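pasting for the record
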Amino acid sequence: MSELWQLPMWDDVTQVVNVASVPQRSPFRYPGGKTWLVPRTRQWLATLPIKPLRFIEPFAGGAIVGLTVAFEELARSVILVERDEQVAAVWTTILNTRDGAEWLADRIATFDLTPTSVNTLLSSRARSAKERAFQTIVQNRISHGGILAPGAGVLKHGENGKGIRSRWYPETLKRRILAIGRLRDRMRFVKGDGFAVIRQYIEQPNAIFFIDPPYTASTKRAGTRLYKYHQVDHEELFHLAARIKGDFLMTYDDAEEVRSLAVKYRLEYRSIAMNNTHHATLSELLIGRHMSWIRF
């Protein structure tokens, strides 16, 4: 390997983004959420010579980045992709189902959330994608950290002793869902494999990607307890990213294994400071073809 592609020694970008300054768009509380990355995404997109035709998020989850791009019209269209059946039910209902956003918003606004009503709801079998979407939002809002994976615990004491109601803001959720629903003309949801969607658009110069897979590439393997579908072929993901004709931005756990993959596929990276859900300052890696756009 030539000296050019030895491990890049970038200075860390240590300024931590104040997430309170970022508009909250997503209906989800999502482990590994990327609210902190929104200002960096704006920086990145501002460097592109033309507005992208498609902004694609192959591992959407709570989709705060894709939602920001759609709301701020930073690309002509946004495609969200998610494999998890529960999360997919929510995005399918809001974006792909006629009157789905309105139905879900009203269902949330009129639901009397109590331990009994929650137990009845979550123990019943959903008869439609819309009902499953509602169950998912409720489960997401009452679970520790918003975790939907099997084994996730339920809030007991919560904020100010409110228990399961600590993160239940029905009117706020209603407003967010209705606002997303109004973007159906420039947003589309695909339930399926993010790898397949990357391959579908990999040759299109005006398609760009935000790639945020479950963090299981390092020995920390945090994603194994946070996500149902945590098994990802990270080597293949880097291989695909290096072949993308348009631009892309990847985010990963800051780990030696990930840095080595970036070097192997001749990609640049920067270590970025961020706050986790426990308000601890950590670092994550941003990876791309060129990273000189990052500013403090």
